[in-house]
Design a protein that fits this description.
It is built from ten helices and nine strands. The chain has helices at residues 12-15, 28-31, 34-37, 40-45, 47-63, 68-79, 94-98, 156-165, 184-190, 217-229; strands at residues 5-9, 84-88, 103-105, 108-115, 121-123, 142-146, 168-172, 194-199, 211-214. The structure holds adenosine-5-diphosphoribose.
Length: 230
Amino acid sequence: MPESIVILTGAGVSAESGLGTFRDTGGIWDQYSLEDVATPEGFARNPALVHDFYNARREQAAEARPNPAHEALARLERQLPGRVTLVTQNIDGLHERAGSRSVYPMHGRVDQALCTACAHGWQSPSRLSTQATCPACGQTTCRPDVVWFGEVPYHLDAIERALLRATQLVVIGTSGTVYPAAGFVEVASQVGTHTVEINLTASEVSDAFDRVIEGPASQAVPAWVDEVLG
Ligand code: APR
């Protein structure tokens, strides 16, 4: 069977592009209340606060540049056409900007907007607000097209299909605490897929993997890609 690789990335892959992670010390969830800015209930209570939070995320993502980890994953896909599926929990768009094409951004994209009235999606302006109008229906019902806690992630059917036919699952820079992504390693293990974790330091879920590679993503990921490509 030819190699078929599913890669799952989290905030750690973008840390060296200058974007903060969530649960590391001093991370985003030390600075903001997750319930306030990343739940539908928080948005209903105070949409202006939520817009401010994602306006800042959008600006930081736009200013950030892909790092060698993003670039190595794009190189892997180019060298193994049709055999690499990249699933990311990140909303920053850096994988796509590095040149990856087969990307499932399961938690949405901060540079996209969504109308809660008519479900129209479009490229977000740099700042969204409670006054922003949907270009399709004209209502002031705009939100960032990101997946909040309590909502269903995007692309789950396609991701599951890719996972079930994968020969290798590689999980990079995620704490493995947010489901369903955190459960991918169990799904893969159950069907005998080789599992690899790449993280700055062994995570709380490292025991679930066949192999653990410790190191900063900007070095560990290019080294792993070189190994795969021989
Ligand atoms: N290289 C590799 N890994 C790193 C690096 C680095 N330079 N820096 C940090 N990490 C690792 C940390 O060790 C940690 O395990 O990245 C992980 C970041 O974990 P989290 O902050 O929990 O981020 P993530 O797992 O992506 O969060 C999942 O939670 O809040 C939600 O929706 C948000 O998509 C996010 C989800």
